[in-house]
Amino acid sequence: MIKTSVGIDVAKLKFDVAVWVERKKYKTKVFSNTSSGFAQLLKWLSVYGDCHICLESTGIYSFPLAMFLVDNGIDVSIENPSRIHSFGESELSRNKTDKGDAKMIARYCALHTPSLWTPPPLSERQHEFRTNKKTLYF
Fold first, then answer.
1. Can you give the pTM of this predicted structure?
2. Burial class (CB within 10 angstroms; exposed 0-12, middle 13-18, buried 19+) of 90
3. Does residue 19 contact residue 48 with C-beta atoms inside 8 Å?
4. Residue range 76-112, pLDDT digits in tens
């Protein structure tokens, strides 16, 4: 079964999402990097059927989103940012915007089908990450 490829570029306060539709165009949207933004993303993606989401490993900014998606039955791949960067260079990509990065990650996901990420078991998620203003537990 072919899944819809989705790229997400995650930042501290927001994340940009690009869905690669029919291998020729994109649907994009920006969400806040909060639990309500995660829920809005899930609702927005529901029209695209089964999705394979790919995002770069950005530590405390990407893991809560990735865990939320996996916990809700979405296939997620977390890739090394160097791989995504090299993929962009191979395409001679010069556009460096969050929206452009999300589109590139969606293409990478479709063309390379990266392995799925498995989060730590719930019993081991009590790890604490501290940021400047809040503490994230997962």
1. 0.84
2. exposed
3. yes
4. 999 998 898 888 888 877 677 889 899 999 999 999 9
pLDDT tens column, 63-79 = 899 999 999 999 999 99
Do residues 9 and 29 touch, judged by C-beta distance below 8 A? no
| Calpha distance 113→136 (Å, rounded) | 30
Q: Which residues pair with 32 in a beta bridge?
A: 14
Closest CA to 78 of 63, 88, 89, 96: 63
Structure tokens at 138: 């997962």
For the chain, count helices (H), then strands (E): 4, 7
Element (H, E) at 42: helix 35-45
